[in-house]
Design goal:
The structure holds two protein chains of two kinds.
Chain A: E1 9-16, H1 24-27, E2 31-32, E3 57-63, E4 71-79, E5 93-101, H2 110-121, H3 123-129, H4 140-150, H5 153-168, E6 196-202, H6 204-207, H7 213-226, H8 230-239, H9 256-265, E7 271-275, H10 289-292, E8 304-310, H11 313-317, E9 331-337, E10 353-357
Antiparallel strand pairs in A: 1-6, 1-7, 2-3, 2-6, 3-4, 4-5, 7-8, 8-9, 9-10
Chain B: H1 45-51, H2 58-63, H3 71-78, E1 82-95, E2 100-112, E3 116-124, H4 127-140, E4 143-144, E5 164-168, E6 171-177, E7 184-185, H5 188-197, E8 202-207, H6 213-225, H7 244-248
Parallel strand pairs in B: 7-8
Antiparallel strand pairs in B: 1-2, 2-3, 3-4, 5-6, 6-8
Helix pairs in contact in B: 1-3, 3-4, 5-6
Classes of the chains: A alpha+beta, B alpha+beta.
């Protein structure tokens, strides 16, 4: 294991979403379920299932701008919640990526400049502070965005120009063009899961948590029963020479990959999302060839790399107000374009690859 | 100011750096460190069915030979009646070019007093870790035990219902049924699992390198688990049942 493991961020379920928030507060947040929020210049995707033609339900919305990038970046994962399609494999899932340029900051006010430079350089540090504010007050980085959007006439013009572009262009792909005013309106019959926010934690905080109290009590019982102490155990090794050998664990049911998966998530069982840009996914079962040979990005031809994966704990958290909606999967791996390409003319981006892996 | 160009002209994200995944309006820092009474989040479909109480007992799972991949399923079904016992801890050594690396091998047997038994073996650098992991493996390998009578069907079942043989590598263990009152006549190693399974009277016959404790224990455990595989006359009648996964969808 010479390669350095990339840091992994875990997504955990947080407070439920109340009402239908709009504006930058909505598309800046990662959440599960609910209605997809769209970036100001992009139409909200409304995909349909390839198998049955029903509208897809939003599973997860991830706000994940890349380090050092000037774009707001939003990923939506949709799935078909029909009973017939829940075992359909990757054909009933769709992932959309949309990006929008961050409006450039004005240099008129010094205070704002300082805050902005902080934002440009230290995006990652900001992620840790995200959770320390109270529920009511928006976090500092959010006010930055508010400031950007509303501060100057020049900024508004830019946004408006981008919006004009979108309205005039024909929108390709399966997403239906939705004018911004109607984004929050619920079309009847759209499948919906109860929305919750997702909060972020570092995997390292949960890594070393193993409860050994029970094991220690068993060890004490054993020592009492056999009448030997720990140091005698060690000395036994010198006396008997190689009768017993080291044994690799052979698991009767399931396989080694699954056992390793369970060991890795044991520290934090309620994780619903593992984010690791260009990292290694945690496989549930042995990866098949379709995962090891990834097709290139359809827009720019670049390589696709692993971005995040959805964990099985999410399945039990996706509840709907009307029963009958459910998705089944083992784990969903999302691979996106390495360069995160985004064309000059803004269109919602579709067809990022997704794989589902299901244990039997 | 950065422009999003088309295709290769795009200024790519920081190569080799992590992407940035923000949390939403988070209501405070998540509880870190030891969480008391953590809830079990099932990973497999069988786990979800068990947690929702659609499957009420282990026997339904055994009936369809569904693989049990999560040890929490056993905890959920059998719960407090499970008792662990450390069978044996022994150090094992691996010779490396510089020195010897010593690890501890833990044998843990697990039982509930109602006809279920499991055996787990795990090696690890520390004893406590080995015991902990061996407990999980023992839970995954739980099997039901069937007991029967030698002669008249008076009182509770006390023996294996038929002669069985278990083997593991070179070790063969025969279990032979005996009338009530015989007790378990065997070497100390298979005596433990037999007692845990609730078998009171048994003759055993072993063959092979029984000095290897691991193989001997696994062979006797294998013999016990073979009992239910034996098709006795009372199972000859045909029954039709529906698999749980189908029944609940």
């Amino acid at each position: 294991m010479a390669a350095v493991l990339k840091p992994v961020l875990l997504g955990l379920r947080d407070a439920p979403v109340h009402g239908s928030p709009s504006g930058p507060g909505a598309w800046n947040a990662s959440k599960l379920g609910g209605i997809p929020d769209a970036l100001p210049t992009v139409a909200a995707p409304r995909p349909v299932c390839q198998r049955c033609g029903q509208p897809l339900a939003l599973v997860v919305q991830v706000y994940c701008p890349l380090e050092g990038s000037a774009f707001h970046r939003l990923l939506h994962v949709f799935a078909c919640a029909c009973p017939g399609c829940s075992t359909g494999g990757s054909r009933s899932w769709k992932v959309f990526r949309s990006q929008c340029l961050q409006v450039p900051e004005r240099e008129a006010q010094d205070a704002q400049t300082q805050e902005n430079s902080l934002a440009a350089e230290d995006w990652c540090e900001g992620a840790d502070d995200w959770g320390s504010d109270t529920e009511e007050a928006p976090s500092p980085q959010l006010t930055l965005d508010f400031g950007n959007d509303a501060s100057s006439a020049k900024d508004v013009d830019w946004t408006a120009r981008l919006q004009d572009l979108r309205l005039q262009d024909a929108v390709l792909g399966a997403a239906h063009p939705v004018p911004p005013g109607e984004q929050t309106a619920l079309s009847p019959g759209l499948p919906l899961f109860l929305p919750y926010y997702i909060c972020v934690a570092d995997e390292d905080e949960y890594m070393d948590f193993v409860n050994l109290d029970h094991a220690h009590s068993l060890l004490r019982d054993y020592q009492q029963r056999e009448g030997i102490a720990m140091d005698q155990l060690l000395s036994q090794s010198l006396s008997n020479d190689g009768d017993e050998k080291y044994e690799k664990t052979v698991i009767k049911s399931g396989n080694q990959t699954f056992y390793k998966f369970m060991k890795r998530i044991a520290g934090c069982q309620e994780q619903i999302l593992r984010y690791s840009w260009s990292g290694e996914p945690l496989f549930l079962t042995c990866p098949t060839s379709e995962v090891t040979e990834l097709p290139a990005c359809s827009q720019c031809g670049g390589r696709r790399i692993f971005e995040f994966q959805l964990m099985p704990a999410l399945v039990s958290m996706l509840k709907s107000a009307n029963l009958g909606l459910s998705v089944e999967f083992g784990t969903i791996l999302v691979y996106t374009c390495e360069k995160s390409c985004w064309p000059q003319i803004i269109r919602p981006h579709g067809r990022i690859l997704y794989y589902t892996r299901r244990p039997r | 100011m950065q422009h999003g160009g088309q295709g290769g002209g795009v200024r790519g994200p920081g190569m080799g750096n992590c992407g940035n995944f923000h949390g939403g309006f988070s209501s405070g820092i998540r509880g870190r460190g030891k969480a008391e009474g953590k809830e079990w989040m099932p990973v497999t479909k069988l786990g979800r069915l068990v947690k929702d109480m659609k499957i009420k007992s282990l026997e339904e799972i055994y009936l369809f030979s569904l693989p049990i991949k999560e040890s929490e399923i056993i905890d959920f079904c059998l719960g407090a009646s499970l008792k662990n016992e450390v069978f044996k801890i022994m150090p094992v050594q691996k010779q490396t070019c510089t020195s010897q690396c010593t690890r501890f091998k833990a044998f843990v047997a697990i039982r509930d007093y109602n006809g279920h038994i499991g055996l787990g073996v795990k090696c690890s650098k520390e004893v406590a870790t080995a015991i902990c992991r061996a407990i999980i493996l023992a839970k995954l390998s739980i099997v039901p035990v069937c007991r029967g009578y030698w002669g008249n069907k008076i009182g509770k079942p006390h023996i294996v219902p038929c002669k069985v043989t278990g083997h593991c590598n070179s070790v063969l263990v025969h279990l032979i049924l005996m009338p009530r009152g015989t007790g378990i006549v065997s070497a100390p190693v298979p005596k433990k699992p037999l007692m845990m399974a609730g078998i009171d009277d048994c003759y055993t016959s072993a063959r092979g390198c029984t000095a290897t404790l691991g193989n001997f224990a696994k062979a006797s455990f294998d013999a016990i688990s073979k009992i239910y595989r034996y098709l006795t006359p009372d199972h000859w009648k045909e029954t039709r049942t529906q698999a749980p996964a189908v029944a609940t969808t």
